Amino acid sequence: MNLYVGNLDFEITEEEIKILFEQVGDVASVRLMKDKETGRSKGFAFVQMDDTEEAVIALKTLNGR
After folding, report:
1. Which terminus of the chain is less hemmed in, N or C, by CB atoms within 10 Å?
2. 25 neighbors 58 (Cβ within 8 angstroms)
3. Whole-number CA gyration radius for the chain
């Protein structure tokens, strides 16, 4: 399941996002979206979790955090 993660601090890294979501389950990948010209984060990312149950738990647990 591919999860949209928004309202992120512009200084957060893909590794930090991965560590946060790994508290809930296995993370297949993290894609932090960045501006092509500046390389600065756009404030959102996509987290791929292959286990649907773990992804649902992540949504419930990490939403608003």
Report:
1. C
2. yes
3. 12
Reported residue count of the chain is 65
Q: Residue 65 in contact with residue 14, Cβ under 8 Å?
A: no
Give me the amino acid identity at 37: E
* Cβ–Cβ < 8 Å for 30, 47: yes
Give the amino acid at 56: V
State how far the Cα of 24 lies from the Cα of 37, in Å rounded to an integer: 34
Q: What is the pLDDT of residues 9-47, one digit of tens each?
A: 999 999 999 999 999 999 999 999 999 999 999 999 999
Asked if 12 contacts 52 with a C-beta cutoff of 8 angstroms, the reply is no
- 18: closest CA among 30, 6, 9? 30
Give me the residue label for tokens 């590794």. Answer: 15
